[in-house]
Each structure stands twice: as C-alpha cells, then as structure tokens.
C-alpha cells in the first residue's frame, strides 16, 4: 500500500470509493463524495491523500480548514475518511489518517477536529474538549487534537460550506 497525494486522474476512483464506503454507514448523508468534490473545487482540500494498492484506489482522506468563532487560525477538520469495503479492517483507514495528520504540523496547524466514532478516532489522539463545540453534534462525537504547543481555544467550530450541500 502506498499513501500519496491525490492527482486529477484519481478523482473518479475517489468518488467511487467514498460512495461505496458510506453506502451503508449509519450516519452517512449520501453526499460525502459531493462534499469532497466541492472542497476540491473551492481549493479547500488542505490535505487529500489516497491509499493506492497495486494501482487501485483503496481509500481516501480529506482535511480542510475550519473556522472558529473566536478568530483562532490554524484549525482543520478531518474527513471524510473512506475505505473501499473490500479493504476495510486491514489498516488502510488508520494509515490514511496517520499520514494526513502528519502533514499538518508543516502547515502551521494548531489543531484538528473530527466528527466521528470516539472509539475509532481516539487511537490518533482525538478527545472531546469542552472548550470546542460544534452545534448539533453529540459532544462525545465531536473531538479535537491539539498540534504543537498551546491550549485549545474557547470557540464554536464551523466546517466549510461544502459540508452542507444537499
């Protein structure tokens, strides 16, 4: 497995993998592939990596900037993370998340947030922080990872408008 940056030749395969990965997901909105395409079109994919297995796209991870209402800069949102169902349970998703998070310190990131299963994301250091909140999400599912030195801001987090497309 090779984790690499996406290329324009990967876009169709990425959309297929995302669609397949979220087809039966409990909290999927059915618009995950459109979110990634909209982030890409807006130039808001800060990190976009694929898992390439023998020339086949097996997974994808996206990281995009988020806005904090206190004006803090350097915060990002992880997701969506998608792995082809045939490759799930083989470490593809974990490798993608680790590689994506490793990109953030070089981009002056202060932190990263994720909305997802606490049991899965805590292995990467994500934890619920009372000081950061995302309206409408259960507190335990909205998690943060501090990068570098400093404290977490007291703020409400907003994702890029691409996350709210129908």
Mean pLDDT value: 94
Distance between the termini: 33 Å
| Radius of gyration from the alpha-carbon trace, in angstroms | 15 Å
> How many helical stretches?
4
Q: How much helicity do the residues have? A: 10-25%
Task: Please state the structural category.
Answer: alpha+beta
Strand order of the largest sheet: 1-2-3-5-6-8
From the spread of the alpha carbons, the general shape counts as: globular
Spans where pLDDT lies below 50 across 5 or more residues: none
Main beta sheet strand tally, sense and closure: 6 strands, mixed
- Strand fraction equals 25-35%
According to DSSP, the number of beta strands is 9
Sequence of secondary-structure elements: EHHEEEEHEHEEE
Structure description:
With 166 residues, the protein is an alpha+beta fold. The chain has helices spanning 11-22, 32-41, 92-103, 118-121, and strands at 2-5, 47-53, 56-65, 67-68, 75-83, 111-115, 132-133, 142-146, 155-158. Strand 2 and strand 3 (56-65) form a beta hairpin. The longest helix is centred in the first third of the chain and has 12 residues, at 11-22. The protein is globular, with a radius of gyration of 15 Å. The relative contact order is 0.18.
Describe the structure in brief.
By secondary structure, the protein is of the alpha+beta class.
Keywords:
single chain; 166 residues; alpha+beta; six-stranded mixed β-sheet; three-stranded mixed β-sheet; 4 helices; 9 strands; 23% helix
């Amino acid at each position: 497995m090779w984790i690499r940056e996406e290329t324009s030749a990967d876009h169709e395969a990425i959309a297929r993998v995302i669609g397949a990965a979220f087809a039966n997901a409990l909290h999927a909105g059915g618009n995950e592939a459109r979110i990634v395409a909209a982030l890409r079109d807006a130039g808001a994919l800060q990190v976009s990596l694929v898992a390439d297995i023998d020339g086949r796209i097996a997974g994808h991870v996206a990281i995009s900037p988020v806005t904090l209402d206190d004006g803090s800069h350097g915060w990002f949102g992880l997701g969506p993370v998608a792995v082809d169902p045939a490759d799930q349970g083989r470490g593809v998703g974990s490798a993608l998340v680790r590689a994506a998070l490793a990109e953030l310190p070089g981009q002056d990131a202060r932190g990263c947030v994720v909305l997802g299963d606490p049991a899965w994301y805590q292995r990467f250091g994500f934890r619920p922080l009372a000081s950061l909140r995302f309206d409408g999400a259960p507190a335990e599912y909205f998690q943060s990872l501090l990068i570098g030195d400093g404290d977490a801001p007291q703020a409400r987090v907003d994702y890029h408008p691409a996350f709210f497309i129908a």
